[in-house]
Amino acid sequence: MANFEDLIKRGLEAFPDLKKIEELKKVLVVQPHADDADVGIGGTIAKLVDNGCEVTYLTLTDDRCGTSDPSMLPETLVKIRMQEQEEAAKVLGVKEVIWLGYHDSELYPSLELREKIIRVIRERKPEAIFTVDPWLMYEAHPDHRTTGIMAAEAFMFSGLPNVNRKHLEEGLEPHTAEYIAFFVTSKPNTYVDITNYLDKKLEAVKKHKSQFGYSWSFFESYIRYQGRRYGKQINVQYAEAFKVMPGIFLHYNVDASEL
């Protein structure tokens, strides 16, 4: 590894062996709700799958609160959202969808939640973890803040055998991913060309009918707008953005925000 001054000057270029997102072969996506990954990085997911990557979705909450219809019972909405996510995942080629089932709108940091994410990391052994950026300015939803924080903590601690040591007794070995990549971030440092995958992303997002069916034209225009915005950064038509963070930047590092 380069010395620290060189690390700060060169950023991700100081990690020559770090796999590019497009080169990954096993990824764990930790999302707060059904739809978050599809909307944020559905094009990247489809591209990765086409490149031979095995993608797992870990969805932390049950989406029971995401409606303005007073006649919609929470239990009914949970079933609808799970079905929609499964259908969208099939469109993108996602191998597996895992549900933790925490109540929507009530997700807050806990050791129990962190242990569950660490367990999945140790079981699936991803090369990288994708999750929402918990430090997004003005993010008011606790599920999003908590998901990003807990995924980052799990990424940091999943390689340490004395964290949740009972996993060792069960035969689960420690595992450290190469990096964590935050999406829906205001400070991206990595862009993925999804020009050839935008249509598949839109097809997947459209499966979430209970969330976007009532105003699809608006949400489609939002997705296209963000794709064009990010695409300009790398001179392509459409792109998606990530804040890629090797572990050294996630603890006691005042320069992390500048990476």
Concise overview:
With 259 residues, this protein is of the alpha/beta class.
Layout of secondary structure:
Layout: H1 4-10, E1 26-31, H2 36-50, E2 54-61, H3 74-92, E3 96-102, H4 111-124, E4 128-132, H5 142-157, H6 166-169, E5 179-183, E6 190-193, H7 198-206, H8 209-212, H9 216-231, E7 239-245
Helix pairs in contact: 2-3, 2-7, 3-7, 4-5
Terminal Cα span: 16 Å
Give a quick account of the main beta sheet: strands, pairing sense, barrel closure.
7 strands, mixed
* Tally of individual domains: 1
Strand-residue proportion: 15-25%
- Taking Cα atoms only, what radius of gyration do you get, to the nearest Å? 18 Å
Helix content: 40-55%
- In the CATH classification, which architecture applies? 3-Layer(aba) Sandwich
